[in-house]
């Protein structure tokens, strides 16, 4: 089964977990696109969604689903999003699509975070995928030097600007064996908006598309 088919299967199981009449959070990326399409094709009629990217908002609206500003809600029933890597504690690296900051905000607003992935995203240790760090443009060189001091190899994501008008540094070689500590440490660097480690707010449930069906996990 292709990764695409695995993503589709996980997305469809996630749709079944969404209740009509609720306001939900919707992440971004190719797996989430499949979720949005599957939600629109289902009998589930949500009240509205808070979207983690302009691209997701546009896709939702294209299906006639209302998109509301995050400032208009106090809590979301559930957040559905993908990941670039996820471990058995359901801690993740996210931000391959550059939407990490808004994804973190929507995740923080949500009672439950359901992560949907194909099986290539499950890892025993986080860190093969370069860690995205969103940085205010003025701080680019400073933050890059600090990341090097921490053992990382940052690389500017060329020609890319986030929905918030910032840049992304993709960082290889950082030791991510203590993700909670690392997430906080990186966020403490002046000029960092946030980083793609989701350890302080891991997923509550993981749906993995595999060749033998969708496997469900909760944090180990
Ligand atoms: O964090 C993300 C975007 O910022 C995505 O969830 C992540 O990159 C996974 O994407 P895909 O579903 O396309 O594999």
TrEMBL record:
Q: Which UniProt keywords apply?
A: Isomerase
Q: Show the stretches that span the lipid bilayer.
A: none
InterPro entries referenced in this protein's UniProt entry, alphabetically: NagB/RpiA_transferase-like, Ribose5P_isomerase_typA_subgr, Ribose5P_isomerase_type_A
Q: Which residues bind substrate?
A: 28-31, 81-84, 94-97, 121
The UniProt entry annotates the active site at 103
Annotated SUPFAM superfamilies: D-ribose-5-phosphate isomerase (RpiA), lid domain, NagB/RpiA/CoA transferase-like
Q: Which reaction does it catalyse?
A: aldehydo-D-ribose 5-phosphate = D-ribulose 5-phosphate
Which Enzyme Commission numbers does its entry carry?
5.3.1.6
Whether Isomerase counts among this entry's keywords is yes
Query: What is the purpose of this protein?
Result: Catalyzes the reversible conversion of ribose-5-phosphate to ribulose 5-phosphate.
Protein family according to the UniProt entry = Belongs to the ribose 5-phosphate isomerase family.
Identify this protein by name: Ribose-5-phosphate isomerase A
Species of the source? Spiribacter pallidus
Q: Which gene encodes it?
A: rpiA
């Amino acid at each position: 089964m292709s990764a695409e088919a695995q993503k589709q299967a996980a997305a469809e199981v996630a749709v079944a977990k969404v209740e009509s009449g609720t306001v939900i959070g919707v992440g971004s990326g190719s797996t989430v696109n499949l979720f949005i399409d599957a939600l629109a094709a289902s009998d589930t009629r949500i009240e509205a969604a808070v979207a983690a990217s302009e691209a997701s908002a546009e896709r939702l609206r294209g299906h006639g689903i209302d998109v509301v500003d995050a400032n208009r809600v106090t809590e979301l029933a559930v957040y559905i999003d993908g990941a670039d890597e996820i471990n058995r504690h359901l801690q993740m690296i996210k931000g391959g699509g550059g939407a990490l900051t808004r994804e973190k905000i929507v995740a923080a607003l949500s009672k439950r975070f359901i992560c949907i992935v194909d099986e290539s995203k499950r890892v025993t240790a986080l860190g093969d995928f370069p860690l995205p760090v969103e940085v205010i443009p003025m701080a680019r060189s400073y933050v890059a030097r600090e990341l090097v001091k921490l053992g990382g190899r940052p690389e500017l994501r060329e020609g890319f600007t986030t929905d918030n008008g910032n840049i992304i540094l993709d960082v290889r070689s950082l030791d991510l064996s203590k993700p909670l500590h690392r997430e906080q440490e990186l966020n403490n660097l002046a000029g960092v908006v946030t980083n793609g480690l989701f350890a302080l707010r891991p997923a509550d449930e993981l749906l993995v598309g595999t060749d033998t069906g969708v496997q469900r996990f909760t944090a180990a």
